[in-house]
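Entry:
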Amino acid sequence: MIIDGKKISGIIKEEVKEEAAELLKLGLKPTLAVVLVGLDPASMVYVKNKKLACSQTNIGSISYELPESTTEEELLSLIDNLNNDKSINGVLVQLPLPAHIDENKVILKIKPEKDVDCFHPVNVGLLQMGAGSLLPCTPAGIIELLKRSGIEISGKNCTVVGRSNIVGKPVASLLLKENATVTITHSKTKNLSEILQNADIIVAAIGKACFITREMVKEGAVIIDVGINRIGGKLYGDVDFEGLEGKASYITPVPGGVGPMTIAMLMKNCLNACKQQNNNI
């Protein structure tokens, strides 16, 4: 079965919209501030999609589109202002940043309670402890895809292919929280095929088009494909989607699988941040 990320993300956004409407009755409007530095085409598309999602979910949206010449000091000063603005619940600085700005300084500057990307070390630490109400968007979206498709996670062997700070490590933590047995593999892993053969659930997040093939997975495995690889104007995942037809029990397509979930979970984080900042209403 194909897991429809567009459909599931739509359901989550509708849930956020309804909850945000209830907060509006109490005089609270969850609001996200998005900061874009420079004119990176992909980043501009992401920011546009985030604005659209805000408009669909009763989330307020304020955007700051700054020139590439913006200094690190100017950006950090803006973040300070957003941190201190009680009407702003979430602060998101679109990455990557121009080379002259230190991304780590920017991530550390955002208050943890407004860090809706869940990149701040405090939120990363809470994630490792199985705590915290703000979760990394893509990994949290993966868990929702599994749960809302009726796929049991507890007790299953889950293999994560990739160890990035954005997907690989945090999704492993969330799977552990759901009582899975988790293996993290990466570019230095030996006998990857043998490890994948034991996996009930595979999360592929390595950035290599069609890398995981039919021969590498066992019958009935669940495949979550996080990869987005553009070749000749067409998008491919990290998994050979067509080759796995009839062998995987569930699989996410690219596009239309994990991608839409990331922004839906960002909206959920904005909602949760607003609640948290207002005494967990």
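The radius of gyration is 19 Å.
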